Amino acid sequence: MKATGFIIAAVCAIGAVILLSPMFDKEPATTSNTATPAATEVPAPAPAAPSAAPSPAPEPKLAALPKALQDVTWATDKKPNLHADYYIYLMSASWCGPCRALMPQIVEAYKNEMQEGAVVEVILTACEQSSEGVPAYLEKYGAGFPGIHISHPDVAKFVGYNRDDMRKGIPFVTICDKHGNVLDKGHRAFLTWKKTVGLEK
């Protein structure tokens, strides 16, 4: 009986070796045949197919500022003059004391320019609590120029205007020509704007 049990155990052991040997003969899964080099064999994405109609040539920078202002959603019924020679961006707010002190001068100058042919357009970027406060601020001073709220995304379309200048305090004025070139900017830039644009010596 002992001899028979020994023989059976030996046969089982040999069978196990035979069954398991193919598993040990196989190469590991992480061989060079299955490894993928990093990004070197990945083709670059194909460029976008051109549209059926050729794209129009980019507009010259000369038209950048009027076009940008035309595409803006204003907080006021008044829209800017797209044919002005100069544009004055005014960053201001009704809660700001120096802003309130400067606003009557700006309104008076604007009305005079409108009577003389409107070579300049003033655009208010209002730092009010909401967009509803923009027309109210302008109406308080009888201002007839357009306005937009400082948080409106369309402000980013303004050519020659840098909203980061707000960090320098308000009121802040940026004077541009119709091509979007900045001629002057600062807290007191409006006081000398006629000299800046060459209307006074």
Description:
There is one protein chain. The chain is an alpha/beta fold. The chain has a domain at 61-196: Glutaredoxin, CATH 3.40.30. The protein has helices at residues 2-25, 64-70, 97-116, 133-140, 193-196, and strands at 86-92, 120-126, 147-149, 172-177, 182-186. A hairpin with a 4-residue loop joins β4 (172-177) and β5. The protein starts with a helix and ends in a 5-residue tail after the last helix.
What structural class is derived from the secondary structure elements? alpha/beta
- Main β-sheet, spatial strand arrangement: 3-2-1-4-5
How would the global form be characterised? globular
Number of helices: 5
Q: Which CATH C-level class of one domain is it?
A: Alpha Beta
Largest sheet: 5 strands, mixed
Helix content: 25-40%
Multimeric organization: single chain
- Secondary-structure arrangement, i.e. CATH architecture of one domain: 3-Layer(aba) Sandwich
The CATH topology of one domain, please? Glutaredoxin
CATH superfamily name of one domain? Glutaredoxin
- Care to count the β-strands? 5
Report the uncertain regions: 1-46, 57-63
**What's the end-to-end separation, in Å?**
127 Å
What Rg is obtained from the alpha carbons, in whole angstroms? 37 Å
The portion of residues forming beta strands comes to: 5-15%
Q: Could you report the average pLDDT, rounded to the nearest whole number?
A: 74
Task: Provide the succession of SSEs.
Answer: HHEHEHEEEH
